[in-house]
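Kindly review these tokens for lecture notes.

. . .
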Amino acid sequence: LTSLELTAVDRLPGDSFAWVALRALQSGEARARGDLKMANYYLRDATERTAEVRHPLISELMDSILSHAQGLLAQTEGNFALALSKFKNSSEISKRHGTRLAPIAAMDLAGLHWASGQYARALELHTDEHHRSEDLERLGPAWSLRSHLSAAKCAIDCGKLLIAETELRAAEQLLRETAGLPEMLQGYYLLYSGELDLTALEGNSRGGFDLLEKACQIFESMDPPYHAGLLDAKISITQYAIRTDDYKRLFAILHNILEE
């Protein structure tokens, strides 16, 4: 937050919508730097100070913002049951009132389902046409691209390869037609394209491994390198090398990971 925004938090009344939004941002920043105690404090303070808001609509909108922030914090703390409850509440409220938070909360909810192995449910949420239209209109092509890539990954993981192919074609079109999209998303497009190729051909595809290696190159060339994507790509190479008994490739990638 800027110094002006921090001053605004102190000066705005505790029952104002802007104050709650800034408090949620403060919690997010504390969570990002690993200070979960402070992140909890900000959200607890906001919840207590907005408990007496009487206007039903304002109260619900505040609840959607705080629930989303509480869901992110619960997920960081490993409390997936609480995170699921909070994301669901935020998604339902924001969708009902058509706020900008609706597609964001829905994507986080889908991500939580994916992380718990509920790939089909996550796919349903990622391909929700209501959110899809809002993704592009309100949040822009980068967010829409993220939606298609997330759906493709879920479809691959639950064996719905035709859906994965459709989602990746949509992602490819966005990448082709839109300049300046994040390199990270280009890397994930190559990663999931490689996974689809290798899954469809049961691992017997040199082209699929080439795509995974190109994804590694993109993640590694970013400044700074995108280590989360690089690890995802290397884990994927390892998994497919095991499936195909490609021990030479397996030992090479494991050696590379150990060196790092």
Notes: The CA atoms of residues 59 and 104 lie 20 Å apart. The first helix runs from residue 3 to 11. The chain has 14 helices and no strands. The mean pLDDT is 87.
